[in-house]
Amino acid sequence: MKLVGIAGSIADQSYNRTLLNFIAKHFEGLVEIEVLNINDVPMFSQDDDQTNSDVIQNLSKKISAADGVIIATPEHNHSVPAALKNVIEWLSYEIHPFDGKPVMIVGDSYHTQGSSRAQLHLRQILEAPGVNAIVLPGNEFLLGKVKEAFDENGDLKDQGTVDFLQTTLQNFIKFAKVINLISKTNDYDDEDLSAKTGTDTTIQGIDMNDDNWLDLAAQKVNAVEGKTYVKLDSGLLTVDQLNYFLKTMPVELTYVDENNQFLYYNKAVSPEKMLAKRVPAQVGDSLDKVHPKIDRVIEHVKQVINSLRTGKTDLVSMAVPGKDETKHHIMHYYKAMHDEDGDYKGVNEWAVDIKPIVDQYLQATGQKLVKDPEAKIDATSGASKKSAPEEIKVDATSSASKH
Amino acid sequence: MNKFIAIVGSNSSKSTNRELLKYMQRHFKSQAEIELVEIKGLPIFKKSANKYVPQTARNIAKKIEAADGVIIATPEYDHSIPAVLSSALAWLSYGIHPFVDKPVMITGASYGSLGSSRAQAQLRQILDSPELKARIMPSSEFLLGHSLQAFDDNDNLKDIEITEQLNGLFKDFLQFVNISKQLNNANVVNKQQAEQFLWDKD
């Protein structure tokens, strides 16, 4: 399980940050915790919407991708520090990464109270409809007299306190698992397959679903072709050479950008011979145009893309039946692409028949396949269930991959 | 005549809380002098080794010190007061203590029907903290719901019942301010305690 920790302080020195760092270090075997920094978040103002700034987007992404959040709050004026409230305001205005997210509150203070009042305010704040976090009930962890609580290595001195912290953390882990199961179903609903939003590389002014999109769009951006050189990060090829190269890949490649627009496939064979059929008129289409309008299919496509976009998984693989299983075993793979900054850039999809590879291997090593009498899966259609990540329930007969 | 400082609890250029305070300023001008104070531009509260407080906050503190009372109008963001107001109150209790025993009237406006009720409840607790120690008018609540529709073309409150409630509360506040002036026996000790409050590490 992956958690993020937020210390509700921008002070140069903070015992709450020390506490979070201790939790991250001490319970390393139990859970993975990344402590986030809220230092450079600008003051919330409706007049100056900075939702799209790097610092806020980064916090939002980390929270979205995490299985849960631990907030450590100091107490200022009987309440949470303005700096912490400020972050929550940004993250409940135009974007809502806390929505449905399990949250655990801890806090410490100089005196006996241990941030008791701040924690109650924080519960009310996180409960607000714009935030909509799901806060672990009970399990209050209030660390009073914090000045004496840590040793010089930043470790909690009192074993009783450490034990209690471990109990609350274990309770939170169980809680987060249950909450994530409940909220999971809707994660992918916002995935826009009509590609309306656009991105910085989307070619404007051309209908993406036009059958001649490729020519029209290429003209619009003065795209190079033929013998013109293109410099790649580790090579230099002409556009022709790139085409020769891609067309002879032993897999069928498809490029879908982060805006869910189908931009390219390596047209190696005629559409009828392809493992996953593509036709030139589809190039440029939004993803909802290249999939059959069946709710179940659309839902699967959204699930796959969303799990790649949010980083829940980096690769989705599934078997796609349809051809004679004794001669073919066709696999579809969906791999997330990222830029240098780690931002999601789309899906690299490839389809490949692995049966010839397996056959070749068996022949070369003098082996043969026999049925496993203990196998629990239906060999003809169930293999996909094993290779797909748990949260993506692939229905092999109407698979998401059938474009 | 009493002089009050009215704090606009929002940094938004379109704030119905500012509108409410401007209305009060006009509407009660025969009873008190009300000066609006903006908190926009104050940095987010941050502790430092030398207890630095921005000059804008010091200027606001001086105005509050000199005033007979403070009126705060707060919006509600996420069930609580905006970070910008929370930040201003933290600055105004960090080594400076203008709020100690200062009579405070809490008001608030919201677009929805609740009129910032939860934010006001939290604001009471905040103003009650040992480092602020304000004297909040008890048993009084002014919640202006549906604030976008609350004012007419001349920026006056449309609803007669709400206007009467505000008139009554303001009258009470004037009396509360007068009574408070006599409740000053513990003022010296209260100031000392606020000053001794330890704003140590977070």
From TrEMBL, chain A:
One of its GO terms (molecular function) is oxidoreductase activity. Transmembrane segments: none annotated. It comes from Companilactobacillus crustorum. Gene3D superfamilies: 3.40.50.360, PAS domain. One of its GO terms (cellular component) is cytosol. Residues 374-403 are annotated as: Disordered. It holds the Pfam family FMN_red. InterPro entries: Flavoprotein-like_sf, FMN_Rdtase-like_dom, NAD(P)H-dep_reductase. Residues 1-146 form the NADPH-dependent FMN reductase-like domain. This is Flavoprotein. The lineage of its organism: Bacteria, Bacillati, Bacillota, Bacilli, Lactobacillales. Coiled coil: none annotated.
From TrEMBL, chain B:
Pfam families: FMN_red (PF03358). SUPFAM superfamilies: Flavoproteins (SSF52218). GO terms for cellular component: cytosol. Residues 3-147 form the NADPH-dependent FMN reductase-like domain. One of its GO terms (molecular function) is FMN binding. This is NAD(P)H-dependent oxidoreductase. It comes from Companilactobacillus formosensis.
